[in-house]
Each structure stands twice: as structure tokens, then as C-alpha cells.
Amino acid sequence: MHKIDIELVDMTLDVMKYAIDRISATQRQIGKPRKASELKQLVGETVTPEGVGGEYAFNLWKEHLMNANVPVDHPRNLAFVPASPTRAAIMFDLVTSASSIHGAYWMEGAGGIFCENEAMKWIVSLTGLPEGAFGVFTSGGTAANLSAMVTARENWRLNDEFKREKGLIITSIGAHSSIKAMAKVIDVDVLLVDTEDVLHGKELKKTIDALPESERKRLFAVVATGGTTNAGIIDELDSIADICEAENLWFHVDAAYGGGALAADSVRHLFNGIERSDSITIDPHKWMFSPYDCGAVIYKNPELAKNAHSQQGSYLDIFKDEGAHGFNPTDYQIQLTRRVRGLPLWFSLATHGTDRYKEAVERGLELAQIAGKLITEHPNVELVRDPSLSCVLYRRIGWKPEDYTHWTYENHAKGFALVTPTKWKNGNEFETVSRFCFINPDTTEEDIKLILQTME
Ligand SMILES: Cc1ncc(COP(=O)(O)O)c(C=O)c1O
Fold first, then answer.
1. How far is the CA of 80 from the centre of ligand 1 (A)?
2. What is the pLDDT of residues 47-89, one digit of tens each?
3. pTM of the predicted model, to two decimals?
4. How would you class 156 by CB atoms within 10 Å of its CB: exposed for 0-12, middle for 13-18, buried for 19 or more?
5. Domain count of the fold of the chain
6. Ligand 1 pocket test: which of 80, 142, 172 has the largest number of ligand atoms within 8 Å of its C-beta?
């Protein structure tokens, strides 16, 4: 398995050809899932005592398995939060894999971690956090949110008074599901402010003031969102920062999706106040054009994260030695062994420069405005709310929830587009509506027009 022979050389060339085709393709197929039983029937047993051979397995992948996926970088994939990794970043993902780097400790991964840190410096500079702030790349927004919440909770518990308290955090119903899910993981309660729209400091203060003393005592953090997943809404970060400072609460901003827009001059002001947060989540695999998986968690004071996360063990003692000193990403998030997953972003930034990133993000914002205009001019559809960041919520006049579902499946089955419905809270009701999320700068006005035409 670890020897080199002619078969391996052939296989390497085949894999490289596949990668080159994929990286340089201008047309992509949307693909669609099939039942596991159907896939099994198509490919048969593949994991056997003798193995089926690389060439055979690779052909199965190309013929049957790859097109059972929906690539996130198709220009008419506007569902959930799609992605659009740059070709340079994808290429360097291959290099990252081929280089076998353990990215936990400087001692083993200095070169890779150095590159990650160069990319991280740029991301941190976008936030406006003060000198000393820094971050690390994680497997995604969920892991970044978890790492930040653990840091906040451990910092709170440094006070003996709270050592045995079960913590409480406040966020809004617009927050991403991962906040509630990760709160469960660390066994803290979540209080949800009942707004999917912008969360203001005023509402936050009202919520805190209404807490009984025993609950107030358990409250240690507030999570604001810098671009909600559903609608691209940015909470009023400045006024939330005021309250967090006055109430001595950890202030986390989940900008997993919206964080890329910090690079865009046209909307940067909407994030004012983010520079006052204690921690921030930004996903380069969303709007910073990195391949999966690449999230990031940034701390105003990384030492607090180190106190919370750094792992101890006799086998790890060497990393504390003078000769092994350097930046150890493992100390600032939940994972020990890690891929240097910021490396593809570094290469792409180095290749293209940060201005190109600004332009590509601005294009996503522009596409949302274009879609807003097209929807307004269209007789059968109307905006549910003005586009926010790159999210557009709109309704097809007269449609019931099942019509949206049927329409989604129909467009997907044709291999034409993937646009999925969502719900928007309208008074006390949740209305089913359609949603675009633009990330890919290759999406065109024509794509949007064609999608809207399918609703006529
Ligand atoms: C605001 C927000 N936070 C967190 C997440 C979770 O990120 P990930 O899927 O990378 O774990 C998402 C994903 O869409 C998100 O939009």
C-alpha cells in the first residue's frame, strides 16, 4: 500500500487529470442525490478483503458517485449558503493533502501554520479588533462557535462564585442553529429574544432586566449575528456591545456567513461595533472562497482561549520546550490534530491579492440587489423584505408551501438550479417563501431571470 509501482503512477496521473478537468471546467453539472440502495446497486461491494482496485473504484466515482452530489460552486446553486472556492484555493487544497502536515503545533507544522497566520492577519484586520487579537482556523462555523462559547464559559467560571453554576447565554431566534446545538454540547441554557429581525441593544437590555436574580447570575454571554443565515440580517453590534460592556458579559459575534462582507467597503459600516466583541466566528468556506472545510474563530484576547483549550499530557510536554516554541493552533480551539486548513486561503490570497476578494464579495452583494430589482419588476413574485447582504427572500404570489417544495424538486431534477424554500416570521405566523443566497461571482443576471421564469 505504501510502495510505488507503475499502477500508482498511472493512478496519480488519472487523479491529476480529474482534478485539472474539475478545476478548469467552465460548465458544471448540478447533480442530484440518489437513495443509498440505488447507489449500492450501481457500484456493488467496494470494500472487500482483496480490494477492487484503484482504477475500478475511481471509475465508479466518475460514472455513478460524483453526480450524486450537488457541487456547491454551481452558479445556479443559490440554496442554503453555497460556496465558490477559487481555483487557486482548490489547487492548494491538493497541495495541503499531499504535504501531510500536522497543523496542531508549530514544532511539526511551522511552515503551514505561518501561512495560515498570514491569512488570519488579514481576516483579523477586517474586524478592526485591537492589537493582540488573533484567531485560528477551525473545521467550520459550528466548531468556531463552540470554541468561542467554551472560552467564554471557562473565563466566567474563573470566578469561584460561578464554578458550579449552569451558564446561560442570550441570543435571538435569528441566530444559527449551531448556537443552540453547541450550547447543548457544553450544557448551558439559551434564552432566545423573539426576533428574527435586527437585534438591538435596547431589546437585549430589556431581556436582561426582566431576568430574575438567579437567572441573571447564570448569564455569561451574548451571541449576536453578523449576517443571519436565513435573511442576511446584521444585529446592531454597537448597541449590543454597550450592553455587554455595562453588564460584564462576553460578546460573541457569529459572522460565519456574513463575515466575508467585512471586506466590502459598501457594507462595512453595517458591522460597526464588531471591533468591540470578545470573539468572532467567520467561515472562509462561505464568503471567502475557500474549499471545505475552513472556519475561523478570532479572539480579542487569545490568552483566554489558551487557558480554556490548551491540552495537557506527558506526551505533549515537548511542545512547551524552548526548542518547540511557536504558535500552536490547537491551544485556541477544540481540536488537537488538525489539517492546516487555512493554507488554501493563504495561497489564494497570495495569488490574487485582497482587492480581488473585495471585488468578488461586492459582486455577491450586487447580485442580491439585481435580484431584488428583477423580483420587483416581475408580475408573479414580490420581495418579502429588501435584500440584506447577499440574501433575498421573496414570495411567488398565490403559492402554498407545497408549491415551493414541488418547484425546488422540479428545477433540481432538471439539473437546472437548486433554490430552496425557507420560512419567514410574519407577525405570529411563519410564511413559506423562496430564498436566494449569492456567493458565486460567476452567477449572472441571466441565471436569476431564468430561475424567476420557472415560477411563472
Ligand atoms: C451564521 C452561521 N453560523 C454558523 C453556521 C455553521 O457553520 P458550519 O456549517 O461551517 O459549521 C452557519 C452555516 O450556515 C451560519 O450561517
1. 10
2. 999 999 999 999 999 999 999 999 999 999 999 999 999 999 9
3. 0.97
4. buried
5. 1
6. 142
